[in-house]
Design brief:
Blueprint: H1 6-19, E1 41-45, H2 49-61, E2 66-71, E3 75-77, H3 82-86, E4 96-98, H4 99-106, E5 109-112, E6 115-119, E7 124-127, E8 130-133, E9 136-139, E10 143-146, H5 155-164, H6 172-184, E11 187-194, H7 204-219, E12 222-229, H8 238-249, E13 253-256, E14 261-265, E15 270-273, E16 277-279, E17 282-284, E18 288-291, H9 293-297, E19 318-319, E20 322-327, H10 340-357, E21 370-378, E22 381-388, E23 390-393, E24 398-401, E25 406-412, H11 413-431
Parallel strand pairs: 1-2, 1-9, 2-5, 9-20, 11-12, 11-17, 12-13
Antiparallel strand pairs: 3-4, 6-7, 7-8, 10-18, 14-15, 15-16, 19-20, 21-22, 22-25, 23-24
């Protein structure tokens, strides 16, 4: 999609700002105004990469299935690839699409509403625009931030962090806040954090450090990017990122590895680590993520999960004890990358599981594939790549990387070009155009 109108731009901002707020407890006492289903009705709640992909692939598996995507936004903004927007390498228009275009292409129904209640006994969800009965339900509501993981519990401090120094992995307004900071940044420390646990795109904080440092280098800004990470080295592509940090941005990036964060004061612009206090002028502070509170609210979470993720069958994605409810994307507990490529890849499997179960059959689990390009240089545009597959070890009962997994740490213009091609291919697949 290109050339957003002023009205569409305002709608995008408004919708994403609302999506970050708690769901309103508003329900309608009437049935939603939807066409009568002509087959089994599958309702999908959440229009991120996971929900959109499952909606498309369900119709591919069986065109007779009635698919309804419930999403409270009208415009989709892709957070995957958005580091390129922050780095000035991709316009916002190339990351923004209409849900109605995806539905038209996929042959399913897009229903612009908020889900408010779940009645599992009646197989019904309630929305602010009426109730909807389902044969199967897929919940893909995304993530929320857990600022308490940084020791931040004061509501005013959380609000300040979200508005002034947002992580940039939930909404487009966060992205715009970061780009606004960078546009006026003159000197000092711009702080980034790589959160513990499994988070949205393991490579993203390190890629972002490179792209912001490239901006500082280009503008000759007397400042630096400080990236705080509890790990000994980057979560993926350690060799490639560390080489880029040293060879391209020696004076602009300080990588603080093996460093824990004990507190953040957004008012004094101070981060307290287990080594020292760091003063900063700007930043994108990324705390540990957790599954959307919807999962916990509807008693679908695993109480042992530190990130409040869902208690599901890890091969078929259905809630344990209810094969009518599936949880996917950021809210599933398996330690796969929470990236767009994994969401898109595992959606094919989940769609097949649902479609074949409607016919009384089962399918074997297939590993999702993680394809993660990271732009580490802008002049020329060079990227590195992490490609991963997964397997379940029956002896240890743990997930591990499949031997086919491989990092590509030598940055190249070829991989830089493939980064854009990945986006174009997937946007065309889901929305029909770029």
């Amino acid at each position: 999609m290109t050339g957003l109108s002023r009205r569409e731009f305002s709608a995008l901002l408004g919708a994403t700002a609302i999506s970050a707020l708690p769901m309103p407890a508003i329900s309608a006492n009437h049935e939603a105004e939807l066409p009568d289903p002509k087959g089994a009705r599958i309702v999908i709640v959440g229009g991120g990469w996971s929900g959109l992909s499952i909606a498309k692939y369900l119709k591919t598996e069986n065109p007779k299935i009635d698919v309804v995507l419930v999403e409270r936004r009208t415009l989709f903004f892709s957070l995957p690839l958005s580091n390129l927007f922050i780095g000035g390498l991709m316009p916002q228009s190339q990351l923004t699409y209409r849900f109605e275009d995806a539905a038209k292409l996929g042959g399913y129904i897009y229903f612009n509403a908020n889900m408010t209640e779940l009645d599992r006994s009646r197989r019904r969800i309630e929305t602010n625009k009426g109730w909807i009965d389902y044969d199967s339900l897929v919940l893909a509501p995304g993530v929320e931030y857990d600022y308490s993981s940084f020791g931040v519990k004061n509501p005013d401090a959380i609000t300040e962090l979200k508005s002034k120094f947002p992580a940039g992995f939930v909404s487009v307004d966060e992205q715009l806040s970061i780009t606004k900071q960078l546009a006026s940044f003159k000197k000092g420390v711009f702080v980034l954090t790589a959160p513990p646990g499994i988070y949205r795109c393991a490579a993203s904080p390190y890629e972002r450090a490179c792209l912001i440092a490239a901006l500082f280098k280009k503008r000759n800004i007397k400042g630096k990017v400080v990236l705080i990470d509890s790990r000994e080295e980057p979560a993926v592509n350690g060799e490639g990122f560390l080489s880029a940090f040293e060879e391209l941005y020696g004076g602009w990036i300080e990588y603080m590895n093996s460093t824990g964060i004990e507190g953040v004061d957004p008012f004094s612009k101070t981060i307290k680590t287990d080594f020292d206090d760091i003063k900063f002028e700007g930043g994108a502070i990324y705390p540990r993520t957790r599954a959307a509170r919807m999962i916990e609210r509807f008693d679908l979470n695993d109480p042992t999960s530190p990130q409040k993720e869902a208690r599901i069958d890890q091969f078929d994605y259905n809630f344990v004890g209810d094969e009518r409810i599936y949880v996917t994307g950021d809210c599933r507990p398996m330690p796969f990358s929470k990236s767009a490529s994994v969401a898109n890849s595992e959606a094919k499997h989940v769609a097949k599981v649902i479609a074949t179960r409607l016919q009384g059959r089962e399918v074997k689990w297939v590993t999702p594939e993680s394809v993660c390009y990271s732009m580490v240089n802008t002049q020329p545009r060079e990227a590195i790549l992490s490609r991963s597959f997964y397997r379940f070890d029956e002896n240890s009962k743990q997930w591990a990387f499949d031997p086919r997994s491989k990092p590509y740490n030598n940055r190249s213009e070829r991989l830089g070009a493939e980064t854009y091609l990945w986006g174009k291919t997937h946007f065309r697949e889901i929305f029909g155009r770029i």
